[in-house]
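Hi R.,

As promised on Friday, here is the backbone we talked about, encoded as structure tokens. Could you run it through your design pipeline when you get a chance and send me back a sequence?
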């Protein structure tokens, strides 16, 4: 199975519109971060986790030719805003795309994209089949997802463990019970926004402490703000088994 980081930036992306900081003006491609999402390519299924505002360009950039499913972590705009663009896959595949979301996220999708769900079947609208999920494990073809609930300030957000790979994008607090679900994971992806304290996101130090606590062989940091610093500079400060993710990074799991 291959994982591709389609986006590793926080909600505004990097560069930030109208920002002239050294990160936003860096020529390093690793300092250009679209909104957070990953592509999972298994033998039988191609899946994305989240479809944020950059979804269209992420599909083009990663040359994704087929998409079976979207799995949503939570309903913030930077994670759902691009869902309308699954239309291209509907036309090409002549089939709906499977959408996996918990009850609260489903309500948000109906609110944000009422025309998809109002039953009028207006020609050309995105076609989806919604599969309700909760904290129980579920399968998409051969890919087994174990949801892990984390708190994004007060909002419960889903992370997912797939075999020995765990992907968590928007955590500030993780309970001991949920940590147990990811113990023994070999590759961990966790959010690290910036160095300064933030109400709903791990700081760099909090992400490193969490990574050490879980003890994965390798941890990748994602959902990164321009305030964190340049990829090259921050990379020098990190322990050997922790790296900043960057757009386009691929992992074989
Ligand atoms: Zn900036
Ligand atoms: Zn987010």
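Update: got your reply. Pasting your designed sequence below so it's all in one thread:
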């Amino acid at each position: 199975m291959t994982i591709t980081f389609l986006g590793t930036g926080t909600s505004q992306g990097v560069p930030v519109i109208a920002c002239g900081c050294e990160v936003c003006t860096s020529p390093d491609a690793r300092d250009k971060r679209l909104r957070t999402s990953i592509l999972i390519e298994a033998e039988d299924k191609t899946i994305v986790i989240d479809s944020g505002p950059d979804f269209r360009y992420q599909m083009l950039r990663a040359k994704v030719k087929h998409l079976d499913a979207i799995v949503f972590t939570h309903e913030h705009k930077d994670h759902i805003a691009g869902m309308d663009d699954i239309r291209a896959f509907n036309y090409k595949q002549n089939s709906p795309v499977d959408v996996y979301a918990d009850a609260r996220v489903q309500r948000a999708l109906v609110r944000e994209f009422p025309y998809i769900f109002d039953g009028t079947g207006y020609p050309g609208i995105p076609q989806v089949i919604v599969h309700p999920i909760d904290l129980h494990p579920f399968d998409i073809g051969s890919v087994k997802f174990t949801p892990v609930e984390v708190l994004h300030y007060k909002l419960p957000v889903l992370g997912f463990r797939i075999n020995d790979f765990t992907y968590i994008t928007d955590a500030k607090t993780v309970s001991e019970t949920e940590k147990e679900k990811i113990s023994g994971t070999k590759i961990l992806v966790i959010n690290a926004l910036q160095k300064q304290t933030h109400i709903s996101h791990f700081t760099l130090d909090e992400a490193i402490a969490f990574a050490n606590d879980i003890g994965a062989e390798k941890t990748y940091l994602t959902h990164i703000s321009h305030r964190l610093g340049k990829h090259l500079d921050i990379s020098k400060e990190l322990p050997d088994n922790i790296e900043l993710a960057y757009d386009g990074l691929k992992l074989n799991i």
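One thing I noticed while checking it: The mean pLDDT is 97.

Thanks again,
M.
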